[in-house]
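Meet today's protein:

…
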Amino acid sequence: QITAPYLHIGAITIMVLLSWPVALHAIRADKKVVQVIIVGPYLAILLFLFLIPLGMYSPCIREMGTLGPKPALIGHRGAPMLAPENTEMSFQKTIEHGGDGLETDVTISYDGVPFLMHDSTLRRTTNIKEVYPNDTAQNAALFSWDTLQELNAGTWFLKDKPFSCMGSLSRADQNQAMNQSIYKLSNFLRLADSQNKLVIFDLYRPPEKHPYRNSWINRTLEVILDEAGIRPHLVLWLENDMRSFVQSVAPGFQQTMGSKAPVEDLLMDNIVKLNLAYTEMSSEDIR
């Protein structure tokens, strides 16, 4: 399925190159029988090469009605090539481009406010070096929400240009990116709910001696169910710890697994979706 098209094109190219010597020998032949012997097999092979694609199987060609549903497009940390990752602007860009869902990473501040941050520190995606230069190595969960709100979460994007294939931003987008701040989980969920978008997130457990170290899932559920009020079916719950408890208090969540497991285990845990890397899956797994 991978090499066949190249072999086919190569064979046709060879036949085209052979057309000149074949034609030359056919013209120089004195008898028609000899000409037919020379040209006949050549034309038969050429016709075969042109018709063979009609009999080839390709997984890309399906009978009407047999094609599965279109894959859902999930914005990984929003649209990080168009806006600073995990910011309101990034998720707005995903929505503008027709994304079906939003993916993010959730950390809990020292005073119990869940916010969006992928890295364990604030060094890469905020201006903490300028505001708190002595705290750049501090775990992001050890800052209070008031302190986090002081930081800019967008200027690094224009300065570092994290993707080599980034297009040029309009002046309006540049100004908007420069004014992005750390995004709160509750606001993220309200945005998703207002646009009827699915949400999926990695939930990071706070470090040792953090006030919410042992109640991180409970605190996150409070925000989802009580503060944000997002419709439960839009939440793809990925965290595996305390899954049975989560199902008991939020039965409407779509339970999602981040690793492969036997079908029996998936059914027992009420898993309805899998979040897997294609590079770690075989073709049989994908089917």
